[in-house]
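Sequence in, structure out. First:
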Amino acid sequence: MKALIMAGGYATRLWPITKSKPKPLLPLGEKTIIEYILEKVKETGLPTYISTNKFFESHFRPLSDKYNIELIVENTYKEEEKLGTIGAIKNAIDVLGEDDYLIVAGDNVFSLSLLDFVRRFNELKKTLIAVYDVGDLELAKRYGIVILEGDRVIYFEEKPSSPKTSLISTGIYAFPKNVITRVEEYLKKGNKDAPGYFIQWLLESKTEIYGYKFGGYWYDIGSADSYLEAFKIFLKESYIEEIQISPYAKIIPPVVIRRGARILGRSIIGPYAYIDEECIIENSDISDSIIFRDTIIRNSTIWRSIIDEKCEIRNLELRKSLVGGHAKIQRGD
């Protein structure tokens, strides 16, 4: 069995932040999103691969070297060329060969033990999907909803307009070899290139599918709100590297402040703030926010916002904002 982490999307819902950086490499606490997933996958002992695209390949190389994980790179450079997830899985199988596969979305974080999940798959040797109750029928419309009889899936509907349940399929799947190899057949029939529709198609073609229900937490990091909420959950304590800090500044934990940052004047940082390398924060209040490297913020208040790298923000109050890289925004002097 092989483990394949899907990290080839262009994350358009988080643009402009993810125009220049892949979503799985966004910080979540002191680590990146995908590092939490890698820690879970490592427990299984499976040979592990990351599926990404040509545009973001260089971003994943340091991670690949650090964790000794091979990249499977699809030949696309922009959203319009992108393979869907099923197409990317087929591309990976073409490279890695036929086998049982553990498939994990690279932008979900979860409490599920993948070791227990794989053990259950090895008992069944049938398609197994991880399912989670989001507790909200409106929210369930975004996902594939699942009805179980015992632990067998008897009904599956992708993105229903009127969900029958709030139990949904997460981005975690285990496929036996005889099922995963059907992705080519599925795509040739012109079906939608997405995992939920593949599961629905399998069920309609009488394939046995089982659900593995788990509690705890599950975050699909698809929007700024869900990203910031997950960031708060995962930031349990402060991580402060070598920085310059004014004696008049105040740090309210938990925060992450990376090397080379300068916290000047009467700034207040935190709680739940991420300040990246070489940022300059002067006479500003920043909380519930993520500030990427080489950004300058002066005389401003930033709350529940994400500001990309190399920005300059002066004399502003920003709330629930997304600011793209290299932006210069100020009000007066």
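Second:
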Amino acid sequence: MTRNVVISGGGTGIGLAAALAFAADADQVLLLGRRAEVLEKAGVPGALTYAADLTKVEDVRGVAEFVAAELGTVDVLIHSAGGSGLLEPGPGTEAGDDPLAAVAHAWTVAFRLNTLTAALLTEALSDRLASPGGRVLFLSSIAAYRGSGSGAYAASKAALHPYAFDLARRLGPRGITVNVVAPGYIEDTDFFGDRMTEERRQQLIAETSTGRAGTPGDVAATLHWLASPSASHITAQVVQVNGGAERGH
């Protein structure tokens, strides 16, 4: 049976890999992202696209209206939007600015990108989740367990865990499951931009037990399984996809 699958951040990286996995099942996929041109060039067969900034309430309302008109019911909601970059210039982004203002800006941006986007979209679409059988899936990070260097990104991802647990309790009586997937180092994404050196890459791979970097497909396969009937009794869990790196070496 064809399902309606909504994926934020669906134009690149893990979100795109997940979109392709669901489209291969002939599911109807809706890709969300800030850049319309990226969504349109994603190449997901039969996918709908809608460009929106999910940190903005009015944009999220627009998504909800589009979903109501085009899909009606949401069977699978995947939150892949986020990252460690800046949304827009702000206090502390230029040399010489107040260091404390820079901290405030970095933490505010991290939580807007990684936490607020997920919360706003979930709440906007919660009444449209299929009951029973709906799935809500969040993308966290190994950083939620090990830190991220600055703390802001890791904290914003870790904040998704208790939110997911609360949602699982709230939505469980409707037959809806809520889970989190926490990837480790994943190659072929835009996350690191041009900051990844070969030395750092080898260091991250050496931390795994499997001796390799993760791929977007590794994470997409986990999301696909959690959305399947086989995982209908799994909820309020964090599934780590990091080749054992969280345990350390």
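Remark: The domain at 4-247 is CATH 3.40.50.720 (Rossmann fold).
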